[in-house]
Amino acid sequence: MANRGVARREQILYAAMMVFADHGYHRASLAGIAEQAGISQAGLLHHFPTKQHLLIAVLEVRDRLDVEWMADLDGGTGPRLLVTLLRLVDRNRRLGGLVQIYTALSGESVTDDHPARAWFTGRYERVTASIEVGLRAGADGLRPEVDCGQLAREVVAVMDGLQLQWLLNPEVVDMVAAFRAYATRLIRSSALDPEPVVALLATAVPVPLATHAG
Amino acid sequence: MANRGVARREQILYAAMMVFADHGYHRASLAGIAEQAGISQAGLLHHFPTKQHLLIAVLEVRDRLDVEWMADLDGGTGPRLLVTLLRLVDRNRRLGGLVQIYTALSGESVTDDHPARAWFTGRYERVTASIEVGLRAGADGLRPEVDCGQLAREVVAVMDGLQLQWLLNPEVVDMVAAFRAYATRLIRSSALDPEPVVALLATAVPVPLATHAG
DNA sequence: GTCTATAAACGGATAGAC
DNA sequence: GTCTATCCGTTTATAGAC
Known about the structure:
The structure is a homodimer. Chain A has about 210 residues and is mainly α. Chain A contains 10 helices and no strands. Chain A has helices spanning about 5-25, 30-35, 40-45, 50-75, 80-95, 95-110, 115-135, 150-170, 175-190, 195-205. In chain A, helix 1 (about 5-25) packs across helix 2 (about 30-35), helix 4 runs antiparallel to helix 5 (about 80-95) and helix 9 (about 175-190) runs antiparallel to helix 10.
């Protein structure tokens, strides 16, 4: 029973994630989050003293999830890293609203003095650095003129940009297929003997439901 | 003097663009916009009856700018289209805060019932369709397996994703160089005789100031 | 830990004088 | 067309009882 308070915190965090996903940060109200969590607004503020504290706590959840992801990344380098990232894109598609939080918040955060801005800036540095390491480690077959740091940012950009289009229009945009095509072309244009990995890209994720507009 | 009212409108629109860029939509206040425009808040509402009307008007300015851009697009097809887009990325870098509006608003807009959501969804359809047409028109040298519609979304994704990273950390992220590298690789991997265009990509935009972290 | 009640501030929008 | 004054809803945060 000592962890009852902890359970409440998790409950509130989960509710906050859902409401932030639906409305972004500034339009989300503590009352709405509290209602979702089955607690009063004042009760919520007992666990998280301000709205900003709550936001930071939500972002820290993502940080913890990132640790798992980084572990995945260590499992693949060079071309195989792209297979891992394709799986990540597919996971994001299935998670749906939970990734919407971060797209919505990252867009919001480019405004001045947004409480999440420093967090996003730091997160991009960490993520792109991590991908850069993975690319460099498997760069045996890479063309010499490729800048791994720049390429890491490009890969992240493709994932983010596709995610934005998908969130706006999920019926039409198939971000898994689009990322698969991108990764396949990238490998073919950069590596010497990529065919085994290209085959893996084709099968790593179940064939999408072909929601692309006909 | 008959256009005095029109001038006032433009003045308010410009102020709104700046404040939306700084704070996003929901956190921007009419009082702040009015102050920036040198008018009272009630005076502002005489020209734009609600805050949402003002937002729509700002988006319509972008629509008009898009028309010019579309005209540019018609000037290039296939590989040459990417040169045009590289110039666009460079223009966005120089415009700075004015593009920040749309990154901030597009992120915000993925939340439910955001007043700009429909506009962004429609805009992506138009822009990607336009790029798709340009790609297809110059597809003589394109590999047959390339899906031009999907590739158009990918190109837009790269531009948006790089822009987000650049806005968060302009000192470190060089989105022009990153897009140039992407476009060069794309052409080399897709077209039969791309070298003339690749050379154009290298010179179409002045060499960036190499702000990339050392 | 959780609640009710309320403070204190800010938001968009309206009324009406000039 | 522009202003001052004001209404009214919403928001975060606090006070204090239980």
